[in-house]
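forwarding from the other thread:

> can someone predict this with magnesium ion?

sure thing
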Amino acid sequence: MSTTGTVRLPPGVTGVHALPADHHDGPWDSIITPPGLKERLLGQATLLLRHGRRLQQLSGAPHGLVVLAGPPGTGKTTLCQGLAQVVALALARRGATTFVEVDPHAFPSEMLGESQRAVRELFTETLPELAQRRPHTIVLIDEIEALAVRRSAAAFETNPVDVHRATDAALSGLDELRVSSPNLLMLTTTNFMPALDEAFLSRADLVVETALPDEDVIAGIIRGSLTELAVQWPGLRPLAGDAGLHGKLAARCAGFDGRKVRKAILSALAQRPDLAEDPERLTAEDLVSAVATAAEGPRVGT
Ligand SMILES: Nc1ncnc2c1ncn2[C@@H]1O[C@H](COP(=O)(O)OP(=O)(O)O)[C@@H](O)[C@H]1O
Ligand SMILES: [Mg+2]
């Protein structure tokens, strides 16, 4: 996605994009989810962005907060990026959507009071200002546990006072944001839900847990990966259409996360220089051996 303009981005913000953007339907379609999950995500996002102002009048108004939690490599970030595009498309008739990416690691905690101040600024100045620009705004904060550290379980040596203050600032900031910017949807991800502050989690309107893929999903990811390769190298179409092969490979990928499955398939092309030179030479045997190598784990020197 292209960043709009060349202006310097506010602190903590790593990208600001206008959606829908052409050719960005890929991420949403690329992630295989249990039935109903995408509809639920799209429903939540549409309700909030379309009717945020009216919902604000209700007692128990939504916070406009969605949390995706699950192991690394299970598609959380990709789903959020995809959701931003599909909901922006669905609402395009009513105006464009601003997609803002925030890096929670960008708030320094070395200086006392510094991260608290920066987090406060993000929620009370930066995001409300960005939300003024277009009728809909989606903010993605990846690995939110860096910002909303669970205060109850956190030891003070590992989580200095300032980190706790930053969590407090994030919570009160979220409450203020809900009032100042009702048409703002905040998508957050975490690899480790127990590290996330309970009060933050309780503000979520929807918590989605992503799991490691089962054998059928892995077979689907393999089919998807090979199909994408076959778009670039049409000679690979027979491999992309070989469901028996996908099943056989999937059985050997037990325990892999989605990212590892995709990397294993891609690594098959890099096994030999001649194959790398001409990927259309890829065979079923190459795929089987690449998956077996990936299952053995990373190679540690010689
Ligand atoms: N369920 C899935 N279906 C298809 N691809 C997946 C799935 N889970 C992960 N992937 C792939 O793994 C890679 C990493 O996904 P990502 O969204 O970064 O995961 P996370 O944010 O959970 O660490 C992406 O290329 C994605 O396409
Ligand atoms: Mg991620």
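The pocket of adenosine-5'-diphosphate (ligand 1) is lined by residues 30-32, 72-78, 189, 213, 217, 221, 258-259, 262 (CB under 6 Å). thats all i got for now
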